[in-house]
Amino acid sequence: MSGIQPTGIPHLGNYLGALANWVKLQETAQPHDELLFSIVGWHAMTLPQNPVELAQARRDMFAVLLAIGLDPKRSIIFHQDHNQDHLELAWILDCLTPLGKLQRMTTWKASTFVMSLTNCFEPQSKSRLVASRNANSESEVDESMLNAGLLTYPILQAADILVYRATHVPVGDDQTQHVELCRDLADTFNRTFKAKDRLFPLPSQVKTNSKRILSLKDSSAKMSKSAPDARSRILLTDSGVQISAKIKAAVTDSLSGITYDPVERPGVANLLTILAACMGKEDPQDVVPMFTGQGFPELKAATAEAVEELLKGPRAEFERLHGETAYLEQLAREGAERARVRSRQTMELVKARVGLV
């Protein structure tokens, strides 16, 4: 089980991170494995949203998941907010969760936020507290003015997983605490409402090998859709010309030659990371010999060509699907119904155990 926030068109960092891993999971899954991928609209509500833009972002994200290669016949692809069972289980788990446990979650005041279920939520450059109050730093935030959803969203995230009794949650290292909370809540429920068999499995974290893609204009920050300079990111919908122009203008350094040194040469290392990822290589060092005796123009040209080769298929498919609203809505309904079939079974057992029958 995994999910992603409806942030609209993903950038290259998103694609090489969670999304590419989802496709790989689908390709390598055993026939008996069940895969669920959700667009988590309720989690997006913890920060201010423009209703019109959110509705469009939901549709775009569904089209993106199809465009990158997720198969609605093999995987269950659905909108989280099409299944009320998530909320019902979240409330029951709310009533089992100590307030202090939530206040100790690192993402409550941490410098980054990621939801997932394998990056169920896109990383943000500021903490959620800072972003929600439009502040410059955490010291400017008055916690008494924050909405409760910012504190309790990890419980809803746990419900997203447990309502399907998922056994595996593919996430990065920064999601370990969230998976641990989910496991704690599953164990608490099992021990509080004992029966012959435990209801919830304790889901295992499946750490994904997500590439850390940096801004093309600021190598001290991750690539982000919220950055003011549009040239700092490559979007799935960017044309080959746009990709080439953005990479040609990417920051490097004043040193000669091409070497992979993320600390001393982060801009160059970022281009090598992108190139290696697009070529299916795990280690950026593997592509360095390609540029023996060459310089930045050759590196940037090769990187732009590799990115275009990687994205041209998904981009064309997204452009085809983007306007097919009725088709996308039909697939979303079908995915939600398949998800509800599984979650209803869980909720019947949950309500029987807690006495809500």
Automatic annotation (TrEMBL):
<keyword id="KW-0547">Nucleotide-binding</keyword>
<dbReference type="GO" id="GO:0005524">
    <property type="term" value="F:ATP binding"/>
</dbReference>
<dbReference type="InterPro" id="IPR002305">
    <property type="entry name" value="aa-tRNA-synth_Ic"/>
</dbReference>
<dbReference type="InterPro" id="IPR002306">
    <property type="entry name" value="Trp-tRNA-ligase"/>
</dbReference>
<dbReference type="Pfam" id="PF00579">
    <property type="entry name" value="tRNA-synt_1b"/>
</dbReference>
<keyword id="KW-0648">Protein biosynthesis</keyword>
<keyword id="KW-0030">Aminoacyl-tRNA synthetase</keyword>
<dbReference type="InterPro" id="IPR001412">
    <property type="entry name" value="aa-tRNA-synth_I_CS"/>
</dbReference>
<dbReference type="GO" id="GO:0004830">
    <property type="term" value="F:tryptophan-tRNA ligase activity"/>
</dbReference>
<comment type="similarity">
    <text>Belongs to the class-I aminoacyl-tRNA synthetase family.</text>
</comment>
<keyword id="KW-0436">Ligase</keyword>
<protein>
    <recommendedName>
        <fullName>tryptophan--tRNA ligase</fullName>
        <ecNumber>6.1.1.2</ecNumber>
    </recommendedName>
</protein>
<keyword id="KW-0067">ATP-binding</keyword>
<dbReference type="GO" id="GO:0070183">
    <property type="term" value="P:mitochondrial tryptophanyl-tRNA aminoacylation"/>
</dbReference>
<dbReference type="InterPro" id="IPR014729">
    <property type="entry name" value="Rossmann-like_a/b/a_fold"/>
</dbReference>
<dbReference type="GO" id="GO:0005759">
    <property type="term" value="C:mitochondrial matrix"/>
</dbReference>
<dbReference type="InterPro" id="IPR050203">
    <property type="entry name" value="Trp-tRNA_synthetase"/>
</dbReference>
